[in-house]
């Protein structure tokens, strides 16, 4: 299910409540999320497998790619649509070799254009920069990524660019204006009273991708 990376990129919150997670994710998908990343930093392997299977079935229903954060073995076990890796999560080239060419491979590039350039050369299908705004997910990150980095990246990488970090419906347009193709969101999507409405708000920023 390899496709262009653009629009609302939903990233799951840490939770051991699988039914609650599935319910919230379904609202996000119904609201127009174009990709889903399964990210759970607190779960053990058994729970990750259970949640991954449940989310994959849901993503298949909505025809939305499921990207696994960090865990290549889980992505392979599920036959998920792709993998997202950070700087400490192993070799991108190795991940590409094991995933094959038909899967999506994304890379966290933080505030570094050089990492993004290298990631593209190693087979990444998209690069992610951040964080741009204060985030409750990573409250200790005090150095912000400048918006100008997106402008520079747009000139030097050819793969899609995703922005992450404290993104809301109100500040997302700043990122889109300077080169972001998609916005990755956790809190402003999943920690809201109406996840579907929140997703629709983000989706409305990408008129070509509205459902």
Summarize the topology.
Blueprint: E1 7-11, H1 18-30, E2 35-38, H2 45-62, E3 66-69, H3 72-78, E4 82-85, H4 92-99, E5 104-110, H5 113-121, E6 126-130, H6 148-156, E7 161-164, H7 172-177, E8 182-185, H8 187-190, H9 195-203
Parallel strand pairs: 1-2, 1-8, 2-3, 3-4, 4-5, 5-6, 6-7, 7-8
CATH topology: TIM Barrel
Shape descriptor reads globular
Q: Report the sheet with the most strands, covering strand number, pairing sense and barrel closure.
A: 8 strands, parallel, barrel
Run of helices and strands = EHEHEHEHEHEHEHEHH
Q: Rg, please?
A: 16 Å
Quick recap of the structure?
With 211 residues, the protein is α/β, with parallel strands linked by helices.
Report on this structure.
- This protein is of the alpha/beta class and 211 residues long.
- The chain has one domain (7-209): Aldolase class I (TIM Barrel, Alpha-Beta Barrel), CATH 3.20.20.
- It has 9 helices and 8 strands.
- The protein has an 8-stranded parallel barrel, surrounded by 7 helices.
- Strand 5, helix 5 (113-121) and strand 6 (126-130) form a beta-alpha-beta unit.
- Helix 1 runs parallel beside helix 2 and helix 1 runs parallel beside helix 9.
- It is globular and about 40 Å long.
- It starts with 6 loop residues before the first strand and ends in an 8-residue tail after the last helix.
- The model has no long low-confidence stretch (mean pLDDT 93).
